[in-house]
Amino acid sequence: MYTIKSYVFPESLEEADELLRRDCRSSAILGGCCWLKMGHRRIRWAIDLTRLGLDQIEVKDGWLELGASVTLHQLETHPDVTSRFDGILGESVSHIVGVPFRNCATVGGSVFSRFGFSDLTCALLALDATVVLYRGGEVPLAQFMATPISFDDILLKVRIRDDGRRAAYQSARRSSTDFPTMAVAVSCLDGRWTVSVGARPARAVRSEQAARCLNDGLGAAAAGQAAAEELTYGTDLRAGADYRRKLAAVLVRRAAEQCMEENKG
Amino acid sequence: MKVKITVNGMLYNKHIPNDMMLLEFLRKYGYVSVKRGCDTSNCGLCTVWVEGKPVLSCSYPAARADGKNVTTLEGVKNEAASFGRYMTEQGAEQCGYCSPGFIMAVLAMRRELTNPTEEEISNYLAGNLCRCSGYAGQTRALRAWLHDKPWEKEGQA
Amino acid sequence: MNLKFVNQAIPKLDGAALTGGKGVYTEDMVPRDCLVVQVLRSPHAFARIKSIRKDAASRVPGIACILTWEDVPQIRYTLAGQSYPEPSPYDRYILERTVRYVGDPVAIVAGRDKDCVAKAMRMIQVKYDLLEPVLDFEQALDNPTVIHAEEDYFHHFDIGGDPKRNLVSSGCDACGDVEAAMAACDVVVEGTYYTKANAQAMMETFRTYTYMDHNRRLNVVSSTQVPFHCRRTIAHALGLPKSMVRVVKPRIGGGFGAKQTLVSELFPALVTLRTGKPAKIVYTRKESFQASNSRHQMRVHVKVGAMKDGTIKAVDMHALSNAGAYGEHASTTIGLVGHKSIPLYARQADFRFSWEVVYTNTMAAGAFRGYGATQGCFAMESAINELAEKLNMDPAQLRLMNLPHVGEKMPAYYDEPLTSCSLPQCIARGMKMIGWKEKYPCVRVDDHRVRGLGMAVTMQGSGISAIDTASVTIKLNDDGYYTLMIGATDMGTGCDTILAQMAAEILNCPMERITVDGVDTDHSPFDTGSYASSTTYVTGTAVVKACTELSEKIAAEGARRLNIHPERAEFDGDKVYDRTHPETSITLNQLAQALVVGEGTQWLTATASHCSPTSPPPFMAGFAEVEVDLETGESKVVDYVGVVDCGTVVNKNLARVQAEGGIAQGIGMALLEDINYDPKGQMVNSTFMTYKIPCRTDLPEIRVDFEESYEPNGPFGAKSIGEVVINTPSPAIAHAIYNATGVRVRSLPITAEKILMGRDV
Lengths: 265, 157, 761
Description:
A: 4-stranded antiparallel β-sheet; B: alpha+beta; Ubiquitin-like (UB roll); DNA polymerase, domain 1; globular
């Protein structure tokens, strides 16, 4: 269990930022706490953003915006999310433990932590999402994912261009509510593809080679093979690297096929 | 810190440790239906409602519940007992340790989903583990309960 | 037989309290001023403690005591909840200078609240001399590392052990000349099977609280399956007279065998003894995984020989079992590996069953539903399925040809006679339910998915022959209602209810007129406890005996009051009347009132004990339909059918849920549940995040049916149900996966990775 010396509900982002900057190492922005509470961090300032209205899902100026405090269950139920991108955002989180868990865990917590096992970041990556940071401004998620975690900024929201692209999500797990052994998301807009592979078990990354195969019309199987060859895979308690590589080829192929079907229909 | 938490309609104006979880708060004030089954947010035994939504009280900071309405099984006693009878009718409660959390998830599901399919029901409740029953008895109980809709007759919200 | 209560679906007596979230479990009852107890545990797999510095930690405000190896009685004991003299070695101290696995206790810390205890735990400084651990159970025998070198190692009788060789127990049981018989066979199959140290994973972790009462007696309230064994072991390990210990069992949040071993009891007990204060310990889930007990990890080698026509002529089995760091249940679980699997096929066969159980520096194993029979069933039934394929026979047919016959002795089952068996009917019914004829061996779903079918059969026992003992007292109270007092422990299984059903049947009264007590060693009659599938069969028979006796006493008392000859008195449940003049009668209520007031009072009770010379086996046939994704290796059980012969089904609902739950645990064992250690001996899968038990979306809607036989030695013809139901999933699912993919996986769990990579090699 973590320990908390002071628990604060800042009344503004400025105040949250000021608290955080007093000492980034011993301060913590609280997400859903499902993960954080398991660690042994001794937190000086626990900063709770739940009173800052960041739990909103909005569609504006051609973007879908997900506030940092939006829960994973909101992604499954909010019509503005479920009606877009073939519902992959909701689907990607639907396997995670259960509804009471997903009513706690948040978009901000999941994305900021950049967990390797994250279903959500894998899906968002395929949708070319961006993250909006209080200090750092708006940065592409791909870039954010490649950056090591530092606790000196606040994630405010995740943005996705509301461009009507088609998408598909595929994953494999030992138990149906477990972390993924492998997660794959693809999207396609006007013949341009994006392929993202997560739970390798390292953080989700995009497979440019797989996307190129699809852009060039080489087919889903070729894309799967390309993703298996291009990216690195590792071993953890859920599966070995060789198995994951095979799985990547299959899941990328299936996701691409699924997305092609959707494009037809 | 000082919090004002309303549990089952009763206001608690209390001083709590900053890192206390809602589960500990509730048990401390006698809501013993709330059980802990794991340390990793995996089992669903501690399910309660915050503002009507089912959450894991083991992972929900008590401080965050400040100013909010919390509901435990004790707060929906009649409806829980009504569903509980469908459970015991099947012998599905077995050791009973997971029952309160499961029932809180079931009653929340009833409010959230309209005419759910069996698959939607399983998915909604997947996070509530039971080691005794193999779930089939729970499924039979749910089926009969959703068929009979006793809450309509009993006039429960 | 015309039964009113037995053989009915009656809700559990405690059902409303449990589903109503009442505070009926151990932790709900803890006194307010209880000390919080936690255990500092070894981070090393094998080490000797050089020094422990606890001065600073002791000064943390609120700390009541910190106990280390120097502070505990130097008395060896076993934690196994077995009848005395236990067949498990006495190889433990409460705290010892040598630590033998990651999680072995090093210090007991008690204080006012969890915060001060946590602080003190961090401040205790322990220095260790590290020793070379043995983690691989296949390397343990005669390893240079000797895990139990202590001089006061003790066992009551020879179990074939030699601690200098890391050998807890060994033995061999044979009939005929197995090698000659094997050589004469037309077809022989042979394989080596591996099963894991599965966690029982009951939802309520281990917990106990203790206090001293007004008579300076140590009271222990604990979530245990074995209150009477608890009392004996606590008294022994603490060096107290047994009269000074009382154990109370409230409602239990599941056990599955885990709580047939003492786990949490001694720590608060010692604290209470030293401080005089109440003390409690509640295990975290991680502690429950890492520092309690599990199923015995095993390697089972099996060789089966048959003639061309399918007659099995030879069975040769060798099992190696991992006891872990301590020997609880080691010598007994291993026996069931062969004794509950070979008898199904030894009717016309010579057989040999040999075994070794070894110590390693991993967590001690203990009892888990199935108790060795589960591991043996996986190996034996898998071999039978392979044999059927080699013989080109239907695996059901092969079994039907070889099963034991009622009326005959079973040489591989301690020579006990088979007195009831409807396994052939179970097989036939199960084949029909699963659609064997239409679907066996497999059906293709689409280009990458295939559904395979598989099967297995199994048997267990009903109590331990000539050892398990139950006593029951039934009292007639002043309002004409009864108190049924039992020492068997309901752990969610519903035994309080089914035993009350039996009492109601004999006493011919509504269930409401019978109350059942929880277990309290001061008040409850002696019972060895609820394990080894004994409660329905052994305690049930004691209930029948006691209630029959009380019924006779009521009739006799009634006759006295009515001034008629006792032989003319008839008790019908509500009144005693004169058989020849039915209008001459006295109601039970009148009689009961009269018996406790005034002249000629005679408070009526009856007590009976029972111990069965035999352990009649229940049987089950299990059928799995498993869909495998040939491209990813993922498998999902889409249908599971279990047909059970548990004799007369005492409670139709509770027996069904027992079976469904056991099958679900078996499916978990087959596909998901994995325990692994890292190279330093740290358990890797020690949370529900990493050790996956099945959730509802992992399982099909398990289908159970019964083919009742009538067991002449059982109460109302009943046998046991609790354990037999967990055995078949592993072999049946492995068989189904083979039929879908052609990949034989002989090590559990059968993961997607094994299936896919096996296919590729």
